[in-house]
Amino acid sequence: NVVVLAKSQDLGCPLRFRDFFTNGLALTLAAIFAGSALSCAMSAVVFGADNTMPRWACEAAAGSCLWVGVGGIVRGGAVSAQACIVDLAGDGSVCRLWNGTEISSQFGMP
Fold first, then answer.
1. SS3 string of 41-87?
2. SS3 for 94?
3. Which of 20, 24, 30, 49 is packed most tightly, with the most Cβ within 10 A?
4. Does an H or E element contain 77, and which?
């Protein structure tokens, strides 16, 4: 942009900073809104972000997540087992399910 601005001084009507700002601002705002809308829409398709937490993701977070054999409804779908987030503020003996129910972390499945 600086090179274009400097070279435009040789033209009959040189470019001004305002020309760059008004065009750049519109393009930047369009990119922000379009990019965020696409990211939100594509997250479900590409990454399955609207699904329940998979077992492999819970196992990767060892120590803070347990996979428990407690059935229930998670995000509108029936599950036979689900992730349970360990309450690290306490002694780690309690974990919390998606619906807020607290259970003993001794129920973790191998």
1. HHHHHHHCCCCCCCHHHHHHCCCCEEEECCCEEECCEEECCEEEEEC
2. strand
3. 20
4. strand 77-79
**Residue 87 and residue 102 in contact, taking contact as beta carbons nearer than 8 Å:** yes
The predicted structure's pLDDT at residue 109: 53
Residue position matching structure tokens 């393009």: 27
Task: Give the pair of three-digit tokens for residue 34.
Answer: 């379009």
Q: What are the structure tokens assigned to 79, written together? A: 């599950």
Residue 91: pLDDT band (50, 70, 90) is confident
For 32, counting Cβ atoms within 10 Å of its Cβ (0-12 exposed, 13-18 middle, 19+ buried), the class is exposed
| CA separation for the pair 19, 24 (Å, rounded) | 8
- How does pLDDT run across 32-65, given as a tens digit for each residue? 999 999 998 898 888 877 778 888 888 888 778 8
Amino acid at residue number 64: S
- 58 alpha carbon, distance to own chain's centre: 16
Taking the C-alpha atoms of residue 107 and residue 72, their distance in angstroms, rounded to an integer, is 15
- pLDDT above 90: percentage of residues in the chain: 12
